[in-house]
């Protein structure tokens, strides 16, 4: 049976305007390939997955390299169960330490170990180099500011409209 | 031991310019949260994961809803082994059909089943609605075109500089 259908992705049922469709297709294509490339570079050069890296970067930006599971999950957009599971595996590799939170014994803190600090320090340069080459290498300078403004608007909207709690909703901000 | 370090993500070791850093941080934050939200919406409303959806959309845009594993993997930016594994699971759910390729018996074709066509048709509206609400809801109209142009430039550069083969490199283009 020969079958001819409009592509949901390519033509779309005109639910997005043509310009929206252009922007969305490019976004989703970048996202798919860039995640692959970032993961590959990190695995090859630093023995880290992109997921490991996301966790390490978030912790490295937190006070004393420590966050509660809930706050860290909210920051990197993961479900708590996924993060708990992943953190246990990173803990076995010596990158993070998981323990009951000092402020709330029902909660768990994840913190960077010395080894975790070293891993993120060593991995960052190669990762940023890839980002600069793949992401910014094809971007005219005049488009960087409009791109940043557009993406920041989108991010703020996702925080407002999305289902995940916003980042920085940890105990340090609540008390 | 109290420890104070600059955040790799937030301050950065000045490997990106300030404007690049703004754009990149917003991009990566969107990517993390939006993937979560898209996956959640698809699971809740259509019993599909975002990974299922990516496969179904790519196939729905191909001739007769069929692609070789290698070409499909290149299009959605997955490793072949991941796609083969995932397609087998989708096949068990009746969404796709896997068989030896007609043109090359060493290759595998993945094609949409009737059930797969129905699944993508039914899921698309809710997915696009989410995209319009979360991604475009916070984007001023005047920024859509510059955003599209910027993202298309980045994507072209990733195709040129990245390690994955470009999409549409399947046998139909080679012969």
Average residue pLDDT of chain A = 87
Main β-sheet description of chain A? 3 strands, antiparallel
Q: Care to count the β-strands of chain A?
A: 3
Oligomer: homodimer
Can you walk through the features of this model?
2 copies of one chain form a homodimer. Chain A is built from 7 helices and 3 strands. Residues 1-12 and 170-175 of chain A have low confidence and may be disordered. Chain A is mainly alpha-helical. Chain A has helices at residues 18-46, 50-60, 69-76, 80-92, 114-136, 141-161, 171-174, and strands at 66-68, 96-100, 108-112. The longest helix of chain A is centred in the N-terminal third of the chain and has 29 residues, at 18-46. The first copy, chain A, has a 3-stranded antiparallel sheet with strand order 1-3-2. The relative contact order of chain A is 0.11. The radius of gyration of chain A is 19 Å and the shape is globular. In chain A, α1 crosses α5 and α2 packs across α5 (114-136). The interface between A and B is large, with 79 and 79 residues.
Helices, strands, pairings?
The structure is a homodimer of 175-residue chains.
Chain A: H1 18-46, H2 50-60, E1 66-68, H3 69-76, H4 80-92, E2 96-100, E3 108-112, H5 114-136, H6 141-161, H7 171-174
Antiparallel strand pairs in A: 1-3, 2-3
Helix pairs in contact in A: 1-5, 2-5
Question: Nutshell version of this structure?
Answer:
The structure is a homodimer of 175-residue chains. Chain A is 62% helix and 7% strand. By secondary structure, chain A is mainly α.
List keywords for this structure.
homodimer, 175 residues, mainly alpha, three-stranded antiparallel sheet, 3 strands
